[in-house]
Structures are given as C-alpha cells and as structure tokens.
Design goal:
Blueprint: E1 5-7, E2 10-15, H1 17-23, E3 32-34, H2 44-47, H3 52-63, H4 69-79, E4 92-95, E5 98-102, H5 113-116, H6 119-129, E6 135-141, H7 145-154, E7 160-167, H8 173-180, E8 187-192, H9 196-207, H10 210-218, E9 221-224, H11 231-250, E10 260-265, H12 270-281, E11 285-292, H13 297-304, E12 306-308, H14 329-336, H15 341-353, E13 356-358, H16 361-365, E14 370-374, H17 377-391, H18 397-413, E15 420-424, H19 432-439, H20 448-459, H21 465-470, E16 479-481, H22 486-494
Parallel strand pairs: 5-15, 6-7, 6-9, 7-8, 8-16, 10-11, 10-15, 11-14
Antiparallel strand pairs: 1-2, 1-3, 4-5, 12-13
C-alpha cells in the first residue's frame, strides 16, 4: 500500500511521495503532508545495530513508499558518503549534562546538509519515475544555511538548475562567502534588498504564478523547492532523531522505551517538526523544546495560542533563526486542527491579510508535547562562554540558543532527570566572529580567517574543509536585486 500525500489546504487530491517531492509546494499554496504518520515498526534492538545509512532507510522507506528499495538505497548511499567528515554522519557529544547531536559534519558544515545531500537524488529519481522531460529549476530562499547546502547538493547535477535568494545584509560573512563562491554552471545566487521573510514570500509567489509557470514550461523548465517546505527535505530529518535515540540506547545511556527530551533551535519549524514526526512514529520523546532567539514569534505562539508576525524584525547573531513566518508550522496547525483544510486555510489567509491568527483552546491543548522559550543576545553569548570555560566544548550561536533554553526549561519544570538531546545545527566555524566574541571580546580585533585559526587552536578541532575551501575562493555571484525584481532575475538567468 502506497502512503499518499495531500495538501494542507486541499485533502481531496492525493499524490505519491515522488509527485509531492517533485512539486515541492502544492498548487493551492499548501504544504504536502502524509495521510498518516507511519509507525516505526523496527525493534530498537535492531536499530541499535544499524549505521546511519541503514537507519535512514528504515525511516524513509516508511514514508517514500513508491520508491523501490533499490532506488531509495541508491539515493541514501550517494547522499551519506565521504563528503561527511565523520563515519558516524551525526555523532553525539556528551557535554554539560546534555547530548549534543552534531548535525554539521557535511560539506557546508550546517544541519541542512543532512537533508540537502539526499534531496537532489530524490528529485531526479522522482522526475524519472514520473516521466518528466523538463529541467527542474530549484528555487530557494535562505536565511543563511539552506542556500549553500542546496547549492552544494545540486551543483552540476544534470537536468537541474538552482537559484538561491538570500537577504543581502542578513547572513554571516562566512555564510555569504560560501554562497557567492559556489561553482557549477547550473547555480545562481542573488542577494535581495530585504529580509528572509520577504525572500521566502517572493519565492512562494513565483511558485503560485500560473503565467510564469506556463512561460517556463514552454522553455522546458519547471519549478521545485529545496526549502524545508519540500517533504523530501523534511522526512530525511526524521532519520537523525531515530539514529540519535538508538545511539543512546546502544551505549547504555537509556533503557529500552525510556523517554528523552529533544531541544531544537527553531526558525522555519522544519527541524523540530521532524522530531515531532519521529515522536508520532513511536520514538519515545517526552518534550519537544522549541528554542527561539529574540525573534520570538514561536515562543509567543506556544505561550498564547496566537501567531503574530506584526513585530520588529531583529537581526541577531543566530541569523538562520531570524524568521517571523515559520512556514512549516502550517503542517502542525493542520494536524492539530484535526486535518481540517478549511480551518487551516482560514488561518493561513488571516496570516497573509492581518499578519496573525489565533488557534482554538482545543487546538492549544494538543500542543502539550511542546515547550517554548527564547534567549536574548547576551544570554546566547554567555552560554557559549560558560560551556567553553566549563568543558572546552565550543558551540555555535544557534546551538547556544537551544542550550540556554534547555537550562530555562529545567528551571521552569524541575525536570533534571530526563536525558536530553540538543540539536547542534551548525559548526562554530560558520559563525566564528560571534562565537569568538562571546568567549573573549578581545578577539574582535582579528580578521575573519585569523579567528578561524584561533578557534581551531583553543577548541582543539581541525578547521573544516568547507572553510579552507573559501579562504581564497573567487567570488562568482554578485547579483543583487529589489524584492519585486525576483521574477525578472529568474527569467534572465534561465534565458526565458
């Protein structure tokens, strides 16, 4: 039996996994969700014996049921190979009373690699399965990390082109350098004069532009997405929570069926939604701890039941979380609305017209799995400094937001016994200046690459290859545009 997918705004039309992956975003602007979340019907004793690739297959094969075993295993093997700098793919580090799940050992040193290493292979396989003749144009907005990870995944993949939009003044210097030095004849990077939410809205509008779709089709192109709105991005993320739990069990840290907490620094809501899906597959997760920076729209939502983006957009030291429209939250809203498309659609329309919506008390009662909190910039820096001074372990700014919120959770709930995984979403080398300033403000006098070498020295960790590669890399992308010029820029690159 194939597990089918439908839109959060129309549950009458059903799609296979490969069709949903190809489309990225539903025609009605909704997000694809599985009709049911499948059970993780593999005993923990077996999962404990599996490596990362085998675990990924155990999880993904339950969701992507129209892929053959051979097709899915080929995608997984091409994704999780030597481009990761550790055999484990996603190692766990025990530090300061929590287990940091290091999701940054891929080619762009951020957690997005975990899904974006496999998405190109899922997309190309899906295109073949559905007899697609057009070239696939990946259209993506990034708050910093998705962009580079998508570019690296799709660079020179036959039958694809990739266009990435990022906020020109809203990413770290290392993040920007990684993107604008990207090689590949099929890659295009554009800075916009605006913030991430504007970039994301601009991309969504292009997806929903039927005239543009017809123009592209006539020229032999069709859009798909590499953002976390694509179900082919979301499901691979479920795998690393299952893997992390199985490592804790294998290493004797937890007993069989013992519940753990998961803390996730959260922007677009995809990473924590993947943990929610893992829990609903049957993984023993107690609390899903949603950590925000000063753009605390999600904290306010969990506290009040009102999602309100009408507020100041704050640029922080954790830019991948500088988001006021958390797109993936729609998948959770749809679920707690009882899979009611009309209810969900009404709230999403209110978000567009009024900038906010309010969930019912019945819906709010279903959020008891979640705990939300946020940290200030000062608290984020203090967390980096304290963890380094106490343990020698250095984390990036996003992981520090999660670590600080975890401390607040323990204080608020007195839950100090539940073993806890903190999703460590980026290497500290990606945000070197913010990290080193937090440890000692004196470091601010150094250049970016002097800071890289100093971080390597004091943290006793090798400089990642991703950083070495951009030390002297040539800038290949220098296009900057206004938000309303995005469609013209796309057409110019494609020669349409």
């Amino acid at each position: 039996m194939n597990l089918m997918y439908s839109s959060t705004r129309n549950d009458k039309v059903k799609f296979t996994a490969s069709e949903a992956i190809l489309k990225g975003l539903a025609d009605d602007g909704g997000l694809f969700v599985p009709e049911t979340i499948p059970a993780l019907d593999v005993p923990m004793e077996e999962l404990a014996k599996m490596d990362y690739r085998q675990t990924a297959y155990a999880v993904m094969s339950r969701f992507f049921t129209d892929f053959t075993e051979e097709e899915l295993k080929a995608c997984i093997d091409k994704a999780y190979d030597s481009k990761f700098d550790t055999e484990e793919i996603a190692p766990l580090v025990d530090a300061d009373g929590a287990y940091y799940l290091e999701l940054f050992h891929g080619p762009t040193i951020a957690f997005k690699d975990m899904a974006l290493s496999i998405l190109p292979h899922l997309l190309i396989t899906s295109a073949r399965k559905n007899n697609v003749k057009n070239d696939i144009v990946i259209l993506t907005a990034t708050s910093g990390d998705t962009g580079k990870a998508a570019l690296a995944g799709f660079a020179d993949v036959e039958g694809t082109k990739i266009i990435v939009f990022y906020p020109k003044n809203g990413v770290s210097p290392i993040q920007e350098k990684q993107m604008v030095t990207q090689k590949g004849a099929n890659t295009f990077v554009v800075g916009i004069k605006g913030n991430f939410d504007q970039a994301q809205t601009g991309v969504k509008q292009m997806f929903n532009d039927s005239a543009l779709e017809a123009e592209l089709d006539a020229a032999g192109y069709q859009f798909s997405s590499a953002n976390s709105i694509n179900i082919g991005r979301l499901i691979p993320q479920v795998a690393y929570y299952v893997y992390a739990y199985s490592r804790l069990y294998k290493n004797g840290v937890i007993a069989k069926d013992e519940k753990i907490n998961v803390v996730v620094p959260t922007g677009n809501f995809g990473n924590i939604l993947a943990a929610f899906y893992a829990k609903n597959m049957g993984l023993p997760i107690a609390k899903l701890i949603c950590a925000s920076n000063e753009n605390k729209v999600l904290f306010d939502f969990f506290s009040t039941g009102t999602y309100d983006k009408n507020r100041e957009f704050i640029l922080t030291s954790s830019p991948s979380m500088d988001i006021l429209i958390s797109s993936n939250l729609e998948r959770l809203i749809y679920r707690i609305a009882g899979n009611d498309v009309e209810k969900n659609k009404k709230m999403m329309e209110e978000l567009v017209t009024e900038g906010k919506y309010e969930i019912t008390d019945e819906m709010k009662a279903q959020l008891s799995d979640f705990y939300g909190n946020y940290t200030s910039e000062a608290e984020t820096a203090e967390t980096i400094r304290n963890l380094y001074e106490d343990s020698g372990y250095i984390i990036d700014t996003h992981t520090a937001v999660a670590s600080a919120v975890y401390k607040k959770y323990k204080k608020d709930t007195c839950d100090t016994d539940t073993k806890t995984i903190i999703a460590s979403t980026a290497s500290p080398f990606k945000f070197t200046r913010s990290v080193m300033d937090a440890i000692n403000p004196e470091y601010d006098k150094m250049t970016d690459f002097e800071l890289v070498d100093e971080l390597s020295k004091i943290g006793n960790v090798a400089v990642p290859q991703a950083i070495e590669d951009i030390r002297s890399a040539e800038i290949l992308h220098d296009t900057v545009c206004e938000v309303d010029e995005m469609p013209q820029v796309v057409k110019k690159f494609l020669g349409v």
